[in-house]
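Thread: quick sanity check before group meeting

JM: Hey all, I'm pulling together slides for Thursday and realized we never actually wrote out the predicted structure for the chain we discussed last week. Dropping the sequence here so it's in one place. If anyone has concerns about the input, flag it before I start.
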Amino acid sequence: MIHHMNDVGDMTFSAGGRLWSVRADAHGLWSRMLARRRSVAWADVADLRVRVTDTYKYGQYYRVSVLQRDGREWRLPAPYRGGAPDDGAFDADVAALRALHRRYGAPESDHLVVISNRTAGGAARVVPLALTLLLLAAAVGTALLAPRLGSEQAAWRSAAPCAADAPAGERDTCLTTLPAVIAEADAAPSNRPRQSSWLYLADGRPMERVEVSADAAHAFRPGDAVELTLWRGQVMEVVGEHHAWREHVPGPGSAAVLSAVLALAAGYPAAKLVLRRRWRRLPDDEVLPSALPFAGALAGTALWLLPLCYLRPTAPLDSGVTIGWAAAGSLVTLGLLGWAWRATRVRRPEPVGAGEEPAAPDQDVFVSARFLEPTDYNPHHFGTHVVIGGGPPAVTPHPGPGRFAALPIPTERLSLRDVRRARGSEETIPRSWHVAEFDDAGTPVRLAAAPVDLARLVRRLDPAGAAAAYARLAPAAAPGAAGRNG
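JM (edit): ok, ran it. Output follows.
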């Protein structure tokens, strides 16, 4: 990538290869990739963003996208980052493009917008929807198998030994017993659980081999005399003097439980879709709440639903006991879903109440918090906690006790500028944390912590700035400005 300023003071940016190129100057932005060419004037560019794509094999890929004022968005072939250690070139190239946009255009945002699957503007909608529909379809198909498995299991349990004069057509529905001798047992290795285990029969009579479990293959020995029980042309039992093996016949309860598990599993991607729809008006780079509370609600539902499905697979509401069971369980599920709905609400920054201050202000209190920039009091991002109370605020790499390795925070240099929710560029912090932006003698620094903890910290670091910042936020009742979520 090349970015420089020419003799008349115009900034330029260019990058290229055999199949692609990107160029930007005072007039606008051009890109070429294979047979497709795009160009746009800076006046028509609303913002330059960074899109983060998660891949299973290669990790995260970072690409620059161009958001036009008409709402259309397209990605540049360069700069990009991913699949290799970061040497800072991507950030420098993004900064150069944004500098061009600020000089010759009018960006909508005053900060770099980073959009990922964690943020409101993320594009992860098709995959959760497809996964939800696929799991629901599998759940329905499995549920339809329950009656058939029930009839198969009932037929097996009621099967009687075949009469000596039973015609050949009836021998498939009765039990036929044949003698055999084990010639060899071939057990699958323990590190290959999916490999089949076999019992080979002497002289290939009445058949050459029988597939059994690995434990059964270890239990039988060559030369053991056994009896084979056949039903519907399949060996269902191998009984010897010291060991017996029986084929497992799945019942309707197993199918009903599997169907319920698939339906509950479909609830998690569906919860992600609901959260994205619920908070669609958040700014595109604002982090969405986690869907894990809904996973907890689904796990709680499984505790009462799965036993009911196993015990009453085909008629779950056939008695007063099961009706009461289902009613009580449904109330529990509703309560859990209500809790999950509340737990996934967007919490706006607000001042901490007086009752949430430390009970003993002269004692050290260690708060889980992180400065996101390396500073003289947070070298190499070593701090994981901020200690307040018994002395001046300080950054520590541990949760206490004691101020070992603590570095004092120069509060006289800090001036609070804003308190906000986490953005997509702050992917190293939990989703529920908030971020305070400080001015440290002309250098911007960010402090991240849980909402209540952050409010307590900023009141200690800059009381006047905290009062002004939270006063500005107090009238904001809406969850956020509308974003361009497409």
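AS: nice. The first helix runs from residue 89 to 104. DSSP finds eight helices and 22 strands in the chain.
JM: adding both to the slides.
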